[in-house]
């Protein structure tokens, strides 16, 4: 069965607050939307992932999914129901056998939950993830408890919600003009049968800042494979009027010689991350013989290495880089370097360390012939079976 995933990311996140919608906020250094997309891209049953977004979020979307193999996004409608319908219409040409409809704000959906929903889909039969209601329920119009609600046989709906593609597309077309709360409701209104499979607390929806903090805690608890990698790099001085260190331009009487921008700090950090992943070194991924990298911004290299961690479902726990030189003085620029690294990787400042030292006039750095850097990267990955 050919399965597509449709991820709905068209909300404004008004309840969450903040400058950007919650689906683009960083969750352990990675946008919430990217984690949701990767959950389905990495699932063996899913053939393609289509995302529905707001038109005004296109630049945020592009940054969130950079490097992932996904088709161009679909611009959604005025509400979730219309956004899902437009997403389904966009998938019509590909005509998958089944589709999983998922909220972008549920980034930690387990692989096993996706499998369970897929297994329950059949012609005329949809499936949703759901959890039983276990708390006491009261109905209240204000602050006073008024009516006790019987929680027996009540379930909390989650996503993904899966259906045969032609069934749910027809159901959404038929539901035009109606207001229904989720895709299961759309399916039932079209006389489809919808069953539920056991959901997961890990698939909880991020609605508030507290939910985001809780999701990060849950994510890190999954990542029990802790690894450490080291990196070292050297570049000689050359003609120029500045050096680029840890992504920051530092005025100097000379530049650094190198095929790219010769950012010795970022090169060491990139190698440290690659080392933690046992994924070779920077020269294998970005050969100096390749003209594409001539003069390149080394931030590209660092982002590539970090992306390899994300693709494996991991996170960067901490980065530490030491710059070794007599001049230029690093102290006045250290905070800017730390902030730049944190911004590039979506990490809190306290997970990034930038230090500097000299060799007391000894060696090539002591003779002011160049700059060296050493780095340590600590990462966390899911334990492999």
Spatial ordering of strands, largest sheet: 5-4-1-6-10-7-11
For CATH, the homologous superfamily of the largest domain is named as Spore Coat Polysaccharide Biosynthesis Protein SpsA, Chain A
Percent of residues in helices = 25-40%
- In total, the number of domains comes to 2
At CATH level 3, the topology of the largest domain is Spore Coat Polysaccharide Biosynthesis Protein SpsA, Chain A
- Radius of gyration equals 25 Å
Instruction: Average the pLDDT over all residues and give the rounded result.
Output: 93
**What top-tier CATH class of the largest domain fits best?**
Alpha Beta
Helix/strand structural class = alpha/beta
Largest sheet: 7 strands, mixed
What quaternary form is this?
A: single chain
Query: What is the first-to-last residue Cα distance?
Result: 26 Å
Note down, in words, how this protein is organized.
This protein folds into two domains: 3-222, Spore Coat Polysaccharide Biosynthesis Protein SpsA, Chain A, CATH 3.90.550.10; 225-381, 60s Ribosomal Protein L30, Chain: A (2-Layer Sandwich). Helix content is 30%, strand content 28%. The protein has helices spanning 32-41, 58-64, 80-91, 111-120, 165-174, 183-189, 209-222, 264-276, 282-285, 299-311, 334-345, 363-366, and strands at residues 3-9, 26-27, 30-31, 46-53, 74-75, 98-103, 125-132, 137-139, 147-149, 155-164, 193-198, 225-238, 242-245, 248-251, 255-256, 315-324, 352-357, 370-381. A seven-stranded mixed β-sheet has the order 5-4-1-6-10-7-11, sandwiched between helices. A five-stranded mixed β-sheet has the order 15-12-18-16-17. The protein has a two-stranded antiparallel ribbon with strand order 2-3. The longest helix is centred in the middle third of the chain and has 14 residues, at 209-222. The chain starts with a strand and ends with a strand.
């Amino acid at each position: 069965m050919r399965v597509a995933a449709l991820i709905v990311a068209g909300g404004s996140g008004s309840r969450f607050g903040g400058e950007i919608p919650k689906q683009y906020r960083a969750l352990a250094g990675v946008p919430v939307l990217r984690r949701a997309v990767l959950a389905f891209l990495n699932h063996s049953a899913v053939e393609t992932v289509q995302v529905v977004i707001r038109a005004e979020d296109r630049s945020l979307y592009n940054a969130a999914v950079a490097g992932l193999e996904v088709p161009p996004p679909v611009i959604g409608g005025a509400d979730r129901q219309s956004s899902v319908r437009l997403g389904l219409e966009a998938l019509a040409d590909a005509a998958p056998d089944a589709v999983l409809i998922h909220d972008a704000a549920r980034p930690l959906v387990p692989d096993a939950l996706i499998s369970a929903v897929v297994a329950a889909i059949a012609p005329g039969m949809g499936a949703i993830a759901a959890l039983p209601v276990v708390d006491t329920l009261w109905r209240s119009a204000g602050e006073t408890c008024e009516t006790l609600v019987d929680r027996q046989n009540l379930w909390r709906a989650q996503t993904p919600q899966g259906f045969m593609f032609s069934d749910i597309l027809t159901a959404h077309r038929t539901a035009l003009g109606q207001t229904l709360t989720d895709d299961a409701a759309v399916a039932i209104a079209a006389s489809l049968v919808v069953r539920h499979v056991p959901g997961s607390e890990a698939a909880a929806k991020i609605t508030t800042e507290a939910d985001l903090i809780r999701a990060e805690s849950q994510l890190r608890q999954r990542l029990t494979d802790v690894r450490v990698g080291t990196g070292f790099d050297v570049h000689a001085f050359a003609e120029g009027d500045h050096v680029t260190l840890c992504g920051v331009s530092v005025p100097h009487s000379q530049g650094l010689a190198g095929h790219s921008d010769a950012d010795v700090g970022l090169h060491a950090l990139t190698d440290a991350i690659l080392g933690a992943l046992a994924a070779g070194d920077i020269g294998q991924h970005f050969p100096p013989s390749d003209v594409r990298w001539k003069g390149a911004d080394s931030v590209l290299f660092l982002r590539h290495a970090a992306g390899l961690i994300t693709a494996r479902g991991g996170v960067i726990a901490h980065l530490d880089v030491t710059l070794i030189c007599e001049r230029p003085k690093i102290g006045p620029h250290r905070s800017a370097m730390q902030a730049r690294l944190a911004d590039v990787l979506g990490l809190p400042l306290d997970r990034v360390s930038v230090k500097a030292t000299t060799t007391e006039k000894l060696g090539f750095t002591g003779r002011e012939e160049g700059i060296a850097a050493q780095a340590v990267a600590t990462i966390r990955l899911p334990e492999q079976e």
